Amino acid sequence: MNAQEPALSLGVDFGDGAIVCGSMPQDGSGFFTHAFPGWSEELPDPGGSVPIHRVPSLVRYRDANYHDIGNEVVRGGNSDHPATARWIRSYLLEESGALIAAGDEKRVTFRDAACDLLGAILVKTVTGHQNIRSVVFSVPEDAPPWYRDWLSKIARTAGMTACHTIAECSAAAAGYGLAVETGQSFLLFSCDETALSLRIARNNGSLDSADMEVIGSARTDTGSVILDTWIAQEIVEKSHLAYHGRRGQSLIDAARACVPGVVQHLARGDEAVAGFPDPVSGRPITVRITADDIIRVFADHGLPAILDDVIRCARGEALARGYADSAPAAVLMTGRGSLLPAVQALARERFFGVPVLSDHPLDAIVRGACLFRSRSASSDHIRNNYALRYWDPAAREHRYRFLVHSGARFPSAGQVARITISAAYDGQARLGLSLFEIGSNGPGTGLALELVQDPSGGVRVAAPEKDADEGSRPRLVNGTIPTVLAADPPGVKGEPRFELTFTIDRERQLCLTARDLITGAIIRRDAPVYRLT
């Protein structure tokens, strides 16, 4: 490819088990996934004729300066080696302090491993495709606040000129071509390598809302790796070989190696043949396994009950947040485990009467990431209004100090707002900022939620008025990751304490610089507050 060809959007789905990179022209046609010879594996696409290429999320360190990536690790039989980093994204998002051996008594973190893996893939993409210079990452909704900026730094180091992110639920909906109306919900059913999860997402904005709101979620550790083990055990039992002790574990390991091929065949037909060598005698073993066998195996291990628990927990959380439990628009299936007809059948049984979309479990998220980039590329303006809410003691009501108005450009040419805040009472050591998003049509007639302090010092949440305008009423957006400023010494009621200035960076992130007016110290500098839409 060369620079004269039309620009392509690049989407990246950095999953627990594999990384999928995809591209399509800006008109939304001709989607394909990128192959990385030596690193990626090729899988048939159940929803089309073009194969899907995935890079297993594996990095095996030979020493501090040399490492194998993806399928190189699998082919070398080093997936479980102590010097191999696997389940990289899970450890990364958990901010684990675990270390991986990297030779010469050196150790690397999982963040180092993620940088090595993603950086190498993006560098190879930039090198091989001169017309790809921007990337869109799919991001789990519960990712820590530093995650998006960390991805952006990796992308820019690799040579990308722009980096954007889209929430996984939004990407899956776009990838499946699901139109979600305002106020409507859908379910994202995922069975990836490490977990089986269900997320209930709702569109609280306009039809082109970039990020859906997850109002209920639950997960269990019964991911596709565990399903693979159950299938491997079934294969060994059907081989009628001695199945105990060290020999039994060797048989399981040998059978597990052929399970991915079995899954691919069962995704397209009613039976598959598993072939592997006897680890003791070396003679070939061939076992026929059917779709009905898989259904029975999953039932014997209690997968239906496990799924029921996940659904109940996700719905319970959503109901506690005001979910009406009305019929969702669809159930979207993603993850390698969702390739199996037995898993799809369980989903259809549990959500009878609701469309279950399962033809793009491996690439729906990356498809959606590509589509998001083509929609947003032409816009460098903020869509909504953003304001800080404060209490006016004279009027005895909450008021709003607007920081960003709809239509503001990003990145900002300078400061978008400068304000001074004071302590609400003597001795206040922590001052918080409540950032609200208000639809572009202006403030509504009621608040999306209200934080009310009770006499015991706790905080309760009051529900919104039922007839309030859903799209335009203020919505607290930094409730889960509040912005708190520490005052040392503690503040005095009414005395100006912090001078705050706000800017918007190139990733639409509202950034804060805070100066302590008593000590003169800068306690925050360009600190991310919230990614604007």
Overview of this protein structure:
InterPro entries: ATPase_NBD. The protein is α+β, with helices and mostly antiparallel strands. Helices cover 26% and strands 33% of the residues. It has twelve helices and 31 strands. Strands 1, 2, 3, 4, 5, 11 and 12 form a seven-stranded mixed sheet that branches. The two termini are 33 Å apart.
Features:
533 residues, Nucleotidyltransferase, domain 5, Substrate Binding Domain Of DNAk, Chain A, domain 1, 7-stranded mixed sheet, 31 strands, Molecular chaperone, ATPase_NBD
Envelope shape: globular
User: What is the CATH architecture assignment of the largest domain?
Assistant: 2-Layer Sandwich
Helix content: 25-40%
Total helical segments: 12
User: What are the low-pLDDT stretches, counting only 5+ consecutive residues below 50?
Assistant: 374-378, 441-471
Distance between the termini: 33 Å
